[in-house]
């Protein structure tokens, strides 16, 4: 760990997933597994899977020195422990209901943490709780940073917890209601390196991956899939859009430089504006090339056609069309 810090080799990677639906679908068809570099705010890796594949750190090529910032969907010891064991690190929104952590003690079988008691011991103040993360025969040291929500946000979180329980025909437990008023973040980074305040500030920056996904959808239309699941056209569409994103990102880096692409200083330009400008230029260039080459005219027209639909596009009634044809044959114009 000290060697990584001294070498400046800690790379903060923000990871999240999103979904794409085929035409007419109400449920997930494909999943996008997105990883961005937090310093440059650029795409580092994107994987496309079907709806049967869930979120996991196993989708990404993470190595020693990488620090993965992930949400509560990644509370999975089977993927967290191997990453930490090979020199990587995590900053994770911890969910006590999804993943068990253990007290830092010498008990061979480990002692599960009583989170109700631990939270009470903090007396409403932020704090760091040393823990063990275990999987099979591995035991990893970590820290859970606990931060109380402001009263209004805590009350709102408890109302949502009660509503979720009612939707499932249950009553929210006291433990659930207590934990709803706190933000718990697990990390394998030592407290001496990043304290509770710093970890909280770092986790908030995870929002940047949401903005990247929003750009992929709102500017590049990656979620407007015009093909059925498992078809070659669907595969071409999704990976073609990712190529579009890579080209857009590369042009932005070359044209605007570090001022527009890094988080290590004051930022006055948003990536959304840059991507929109460049994406529009690329679209205009691609569209302009079709009419100039007769070979592409049929393909160009086909690409502009409407998708198959039950209700056909309107046309003239048969009798009206006959009158027009008869009129033209007799030298009379009806149009």
Automatic annotation (TrEMBL):
GO BP terms: DNA transposition
InterPro entries the UniProt entry points to: RNaseH-like_sf (IPR012337), Transposase_11 (IPR002559)
Coiled-coil regions, chain positions: none
MF-aspect GO terms: DNA binding; transposase activity
Domain Transposase IS4-like, chain residue ranges per copy: 11-232
PANTHER family, per database record: TRANSPOSASE INSL FOR INSERTION SEQUENCE ELEMENT IS186A-RELATED
Name used for this protein in its record: Transposase IS4-like domain-containing protein
Organism: Methylotuvimicrobium alcaliphilum (strain DSM 19304 / NCIMB 14124 / VKM B-2133 / 20Z)
Taxon lineage: Bacteria, Pseudomonadati, Pseudomonadota, Gammaproteobacteria, Methylococcales
């Amino acid at each position: 760990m000290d060697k990584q810090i001294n070498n400046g080799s800690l790379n903060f990677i923000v990871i999240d997933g999103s979904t794409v639906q085929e035409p007419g679908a109400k449920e997930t068809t494909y999943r996008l597994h997105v990883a961005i570099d937090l310093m440059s705010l650029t795409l580092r890796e994107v994987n496309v899977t079907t709806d049967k594949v869930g979120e996991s750190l196993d989708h990404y090529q993470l190595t020693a020195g990488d620090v993965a910032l992930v949400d509560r969907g990644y509370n999975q010891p089977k993927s967290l422990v191997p990453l930490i064991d090979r020199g990587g690190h995590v900053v994770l929104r911890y969910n006590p209901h999804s993943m068990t952590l253990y007290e830092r003690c010498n008990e061979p079988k480990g002692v599960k943490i009583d989170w109700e008691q631990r939270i009470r011991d903090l007396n409403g103040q932020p704090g760091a709780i040393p823990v063990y993360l275990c999987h099979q025969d591995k035991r990893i040291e970590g820290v859970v940073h606990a931060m109380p929500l402001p009263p209004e946000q805590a009350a709102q979180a408890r109302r949502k917890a009660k509503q979720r329980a009612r939707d499932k025909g249950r009553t929210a437990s006291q433990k659930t209601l207590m934990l709803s008023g706190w933000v718990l973040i697990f990390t394998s980074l030592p407290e001496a390196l990043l304290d509770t305040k710093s970890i909280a500030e770092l986790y908030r920056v995870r929002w940047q991956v949401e903005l990247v996904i929003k750009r992929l959808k709102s500017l590049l239309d990656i979620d407007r899939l015009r093909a059925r699941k498992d078809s070659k056209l669907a595969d071409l569409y999704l990976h073609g859009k990712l190529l579009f994103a890579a080209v857009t990102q590369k042009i932005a880096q070359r044209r605007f430089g570090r001022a527009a692409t890094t988080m290590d200083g004051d930022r006055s330009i948003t990536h959304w504006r840059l991507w929109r400008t460049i994406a529009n230029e690329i679209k205009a260039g691609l569209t302009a090339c079709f009419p100039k080459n007769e070979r592409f005219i049929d393909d160009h027209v086909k690409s502009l056609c409407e998708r198959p639909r039950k209700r056909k596009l309107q046309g003239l009634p048969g009798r009206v069309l006959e009158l027009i044809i008869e009129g033209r044959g007799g030298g009379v114009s009806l149009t």
